[in-house]
Amino acid sequence: MSILTQKDFETVIGLEVHLQFSTRTKIFCGCENAFGKEPNTCVCPVCLGLPGTLPVLNKSALDSAIKTALALNCTVNSYIKFDRKNYYYPDLPKGYQISQFDFPIGHDGYLDILVNGNPKRIRIHRAHIEEDAGKLIHDNAEGCSLVDYNRTGTPLMEIVTEPDLRSPQEAYDYLTALKLALQYLDVSDCDMEKGSLRCDANISLRRAGETRLGTKTELKNMNSFKAVKAALEFEEMRQFRVLATGGTIVQETRLWNEDKQATFTMRTKEEAHDYRYFPEPDLVPFIVEDAEIERIRLTLPENPQAKCQRLQKDYGLSDYDATIIVQDRHLADFFEHCAKHSGKIKKIANWIIGPLLKELKDRRCSVKDLSLKPEQFVLLVEKVENGDLSNLAGKDILITLLEDGSKTVEDLIEKSGLSQVSDDALLESIADETLKEHADVVTQIKNGNHGAVGFLIGQAMKKSQGKGNPKKIKDIIQRRLFNA
Amino acid sequence: MNLNTCTAHELLDLLKQGKTSVGEIFSSLLTAIKTFDGTVNAYVRTARSTEAAPDAKVPIPVSIKDNINIEGWETTCSSKILKNYIAPYDATVIQKLRSAGIPILGHTNMDEFAFGSSTETSCYGPTRNPWDTSCVPGGSSGGSAAAVAAGEAIWALGSDTGGSIRQPAAFCGVVGLKPTYGRVSRYGLIAFASSLDQIGPLTKDVTDSALLMNIIAGHDTMDSTSAEVPVPDYTRALINDCKGLTIGIPKEYFIEGISTEVKEALEGAISVLKNKGARFIEVSLPHTEYAVSTYYIIAPAEASSNLARFDGVRFGLRVQPQKPRKSAIVDMYEETRDRGFGREAKRRVMLGTYVLSSGYYDAYYLRGQKVRTLIRRDFDTAFEHCDAILTPTTPTTAFKIGEKLNDPVSMYLSDIFTISANLSGIPAMSVPCGFSKSGLPIGFQICAKPFAEEMLFRIAYTYEQNTGWHKERPSLKAGGL
Fold first, then answer.
1. Is 0.85 exceeded by the ipTM?
2. Which residues in chain A come in under a pLDDT of 70?
3. Domain residues for A363?
4. What's the pTM value of the predicted model, to 2 decimals?
């Protein structure tokens, strides 16, 4: 018997992503849908499942769901129907979750992603809407568990792929592309740290060339895309080792342990819940008119891939620049605003990808959260390009503009005296002083040590307090030294 | 004059004439409760303060079934599992009563979670029939029906999932209306079977029923299943005449097991209505024989899910067993539900869990829903030929306490004539139409098309104006048992 290697197996992965919608209120009651509030302060009799209460569907949660389904190229079910998924857990107040079983809002969609630079279509099996559960906090010191019901009733969409992904890296790439596509929709903040985007993964291995699916395991408890990838890599290797040594995979749910970087059995198929789905009698099924679906379709933004292509075509951006700029829809919008006001598109792009993006990353925010005006940004970039401002001074002004939208570039230049000095007479006197102070260096240069010219330029710049136009200073010094 | 045995509209007249006061009405009720409730056990709790607003439109106190939330009141569904649970909000019907200035008199006894037809499964002990205290008052709204019959209430609200207003109304000789599904908001009614439950009035006569419906009916944004159908003034439907009306008699309803006395009373009612101009025809509701079994799939299925929230985590009873068995949380769930629920509640939760289980869903729940559609269509077809359908409310008069408690199937069959109206969503009313030789009340049931409550009021009012059954009152002895 030949020894099996990983090349003899194909990895098959499907992902389930849970997306919280950032609607103002919860899905079935009027409570504020907010993260990070004092526990059990965003609750009411309805989301606490108190006896006698009834759910009423939040229209904007439905709109978000339809919008998301459309963005994922799903067929939208105009027949809106909810079902109860029954199970007991302390974070589930009613003892059932209102979800969708046989009529998900969206089905048979897809998301196109790039795998090693090549396009690949990942099919979406279904996307349905449901309510989120609360959160259990295990207080080991007190030896008890506490429940926070603020999250209960947050509108949630579950997006399930077909088993189309072939490696942990592909899974990672899909998640990255999905998150970007979702962020463009502005229906969720897509923040894994806050739990507004969560991912479970199904993975199985099969012999290369085999078309039937192998026995899968389901992986839970991954708190980042990196963790999803790591858990899948661990599980891929674990399953390979089992299969390569003639073993069989047990269908089960496994939990990822971040500290141990390993997955562990949570429950086997035999222990799986029977959710006893049945139609939710408290919510009457209804039809969403085609016109309404079309109205929502019109609100769909250009998707990131299309925007990336268009920025290259319309503005002559490189693939690299365009790809970076479209990572944030608002940044891309900002770029386009600027590009319309300026002929120096490449410079604008450089300043966005360089100093602006750095500032945004440092602040962990998007350009939409700050008061920077495109016109001012364009003016700033042009001043630097014209030599009216040094790079350094330009960056300082950028920071002020980010922090205070009422300021203009002109004001700031004037007030701070950051304007670059190009006055020839002044620069000549600075250069002459410098040469006088460093006569020894001048002698060295005249003796052939041309490398020391840079030192003199630096000293002259220093003398000008950084405001001297470096090109002019260099010209003057060279003219003096070499009488050119 | 015994104010407590008056109807609400009689009291409103007396108030208008200045012949009595709200305070007098209250004290007569409290006296009646003090005198008779030791025997009847219709109440599980009564109001501490009984003030009515001086400018109230209808300041006639009302009694409420113990499954309707009243803010600040213990609301328990007569179950141990909800003992000491204080409702933090008012049901929509309570809000509506309050805005009409109607004071709440008390919470009435019921079968635990409305599971039953005899009010024997209450954790507060059984309610007794005021006409014969060895008999059940029917159920599950037995406390409301008995309180009204005994003069311990002027009028009351109950809930009806399979006959829980109409069957006790028939057993206690009062008028009970199950409105069209969606006519009255269910918000704040602790759910038994969400697709079948409806709140409705139990009253001494048809006029009071119309008055109470005027107050509680209507769309509610808090209940997605409530209908956006305008509410008419039901008192305008109180017309003493049935000219031009066609009433159907379903041939499938005259089954074996229906008592001769009930049959005779019904025939008497038919002849009264005929004299007032109604034309009677035979109609067919061919799927009637499947109604009870269909109901006992759908209702427990929904109930098993609705009762899942009684888990000891957030409210009500919580019991941790002394010896750990599985995990702390599972032990708590099991012990709490085992101690908190009575036998019938457990039976229905198990039945419902079973019919929804993977592998059984299609054979039971799905099939049940299909038969339900057929039953609904039966009524649609029948109503193409008639304006209303007349049936007995129950096959027999009230049975003895304990008689059927250990025979669930025979208990379930006491709702055989009432269940179809819940499955099909149509309105139906039980109207007193006589007494058995042993002095127990008999009622007939009148059903109409969805949202045609006015038709029920007209026919029932005509019958009532030409008979005197609704004026009969039981003669109760004071004191306890």
1. yes
2. 1, 415-423, 484
3. 302-416
4. 0.90
